[in-house]
Design brief:
Layout lengths: L5 E4 L2 E4 H13 L3 E4 L9 H15 L8 H7 L5 H12 L9 H21 L9 H10 L3 E5 L4 H12 L9 E3 L12 H10 L6 E5 L2 H9 L3 E5 L14 E3 L11 E4 L10 H9 L2
Parallel strand pairs: 3-4, 3-6, 4-5, 6-7, 7-8
Antiparallel strand pairs: 1-2, 8-9
Helix pairs in contact: 2-5, 4-5, 5-7
Bound molecules: xylulose-1,5-bisphosphate and magnesium ion.
Length: 281
Amino acid sequence: MVATVEYRHGSSALPLWRIFWGFFDDFMTPKALIFDVDGTLADTERDGHRVAFNQAFIDAGLDWRWDMALYGELLSVTGGKERMRHYIEQYRPDYIKPADFGALVTRLHAAKTRHYTELLGCGGISLRSGVRRLLDEARHGNVRLAIATTTTMDNVSALLRHAVSPEAESWFEVIGAGDAVTKKKPAPDIYHFVLERLCLSPAQCLAFEDSENGLRAARAAGLKTVITVNDFTRRQDFEGASIVLDQLGEPGRPFQVLAGNNVDGAKVLNLKMLGHLLTGA
Ligand code: XBP
Ligand code: MG
């Protein structure tokens, strides 16, 4: 039986158990959710970034073409400029670099960003299942939102504007993106950048990622991490993740647990379950 001792606050009386429960609930709830973008908020790689890279290569008269299989391999390197350099180093020994190769990469990347943001403007890419539901629940529950991504800030803005709502960027208190740090994921730097600006410790937040590189970055920053896999990342190593899901879940479309413990038998990832994942309860 629940204790019914009462605490008088002003004229209203609250049962003591409710006060303690409220305190416990508050302790369990994460203070902030930090989201990766590509592959986590939306499936942007195959029909977004990849297509935009190829278009930029065509514009520049280059014979570089990234099909799906090759792109899956190239995703081992985060960051578009870094990925192009890696492609040339590892896959194109025949390519003779011009003296101003660095400037070419910068130009190609700017063109790719233009193509990518235009593509998003056509509305072909939507949020992954359960993302909007969780963002709404967090906002209503006063849980702060942030982003830690490797991609360019223009791309984040365009995705939020076109796939969520014109004002969605303002929902995120901190957005750490692209060249905000020099070492991209799997380095933890972008998570350190975001945590510092949120003035929160890793123990108060949860990270959301889709890839091994992202998981390594978040874990190295001390964050418990939820993984939602996609076709490019399904077979990666997610050792150290708090839970691995196929997607965040919607009413009528429950998530599937691929690894980890769904302690309270939830069907969609909600704040209560995140509290359990955060405290390890
Ligand atoms: C995302 C990426 C990004 C995009 C390209 O990784 O790897 O590089 O593919 O973005 P993560 P830019 O989801 O782990 O952050 O071309 O704007 O760099
Ligand atoms: Mg990602």
